[in-house]
Amino acid sequence: xxxxxxxxxxxxxxxxxxxxxxxxxxxxxxxxxxxxxxxxxxxxxxxxxxxxxxxxxxxxxxxxxxxxxxxxxxxxxxxxxxxxxxxxxxxxxxxxxxxxxxxxxxxxxxxxxxxxxxxxxxxxxxxxxxxxxxxxxxxxxxxxxxxxxxxxxxxxxxxxxxxxxxxxxxxxxxxxxxxxxxxxxxxxxxxxxxxxxxxxxxxxxxxxxxxxxxxxxxxxxxxxxxxxxxxxxxxxxxxxxxxxxxxxxxxxxxxxx
Length: 257
Known about the structure:
Elements: E1 2-7, H1 11-20, E2 26-31, H2 35-43, E3 47-48, H3 51-56, E4 60-63, H4 70-77, E5 86-89, H5 96-102, E6 107-112, E7 122-127, H6 133-140, E8 143-147, H7 152-179, H8 189-204, H9 210-217, H10 223-233, H11 236-254
Parallel strand pairs: 1-2, 1-4, 2-3, 4-5, 5-6, 7-8
Antiparallel strand pairs: 6-7
Helix pairs in contact: 7-11
């Protein structure tokens, strides 16, 4: 049984813990200074340990604190890190070299999962200068996982895959607000949303070209074309891409904060 220790047990850590808890091959424990997070660990069948014990009793240590706290945490960790201990950071923007400089004895990995990991539908990219097959296998239990050769791609992944769900959820949020104008009293709009999104997934999962699918929905001079033309006039796709770029830039700034 592989022992996984989480240092910091906030929202992302909880998502990863929930996903990994579906597999008996992993024994999970954590460390967090927040009492509510300690209580959450214990309520979900996991030990809440001291920083030293969480590290010593782990085959893999996963750093899940805010980016601004990573380097000071690594300073606290280094006295407990044994040679070749596997340490994974999921902190946005904090570079491999910054962590390696603090924890020189450890094998360092950067991983960027997303919130879908809690349902084992996550997407994780991994960067390291170490052999990474074991870490890729770990994150494949949470969904899709792959390595990148260029560390800068981690920043793009952070923005496109990590932040991207929030961009889509904002659109879905507006979609549900408009459903209020349509549905009769008592009808559950979330059920409608799930069915609607499931139909989109069904339409793309066979690999069809997305532009062909769009063309199959719209007709010349029809309602779909009118709505799409409005989106195009407002550079909707450009705005989305610029939002991704803004998140990428912030990830780069975090490494210099």
